[in-house]
Amino acid sequence: MTNSHLNSFLRLLMVALLATHRTVTSSSSSGDDITGTCRVCARATPSLSYKFCVSSLRSVPASRHVDLRGLALISIELAIVNASETISTVEGMINQGSYDQDPVAMSCLKECLGGYEDATDALLRGVGDFTAGKYTLVGESVSGVMDMCKKCEGGFEKGGKICPLKEENYDLFQLCNIALCIIVGNLSSVPGESVV
Prior knowledge:
Elements: H1 3-20, H2 30-44, H3 50-58, H4 68-96, H5 103-131, H6 135-158, H7 166-185
Helix pairs in contact: 1-4, 2-3, 2-7, 4-5, 4-7, 5-6, 6-7
């Protein structure tokens, strides 16, 4: 799937899924929902940045009109976009030739590229599992993506190199952290929801 097809798919997916997860406007603002959710998640997960959580979720206008399921879905969508854009970034790094004389870094880049391609597939599958209410499976997919971020960075460190994808790894890790907190910490405990 090309980036333009992926972006079109994600836009359509968000419109369709957010329509099913709209909440009735109440006296509390959605900004409070985002800040409250991020505050709880940051307290429960020390590796999660509260500021990153709030700014990421607020960057999507639809976040003002959704419940926890919608916020979880937004964080997964942002993770898919991040992974997809990182694939393009890594392909550019590989193709521009500046790593041709550094076989260790080139090998690490190729490993990261494969990891990000697998991550994109896992997150797209996770959307299907999410809509089916299979939150445990989504949690496993998201956790796997977080492990990939660490592995990508660790490969460079093991080779004595500085990882050129630190920011991308950090952002994807954080986005997955948000999704994992909401899905596993909140939605999987909702009575009547499927966790298998």
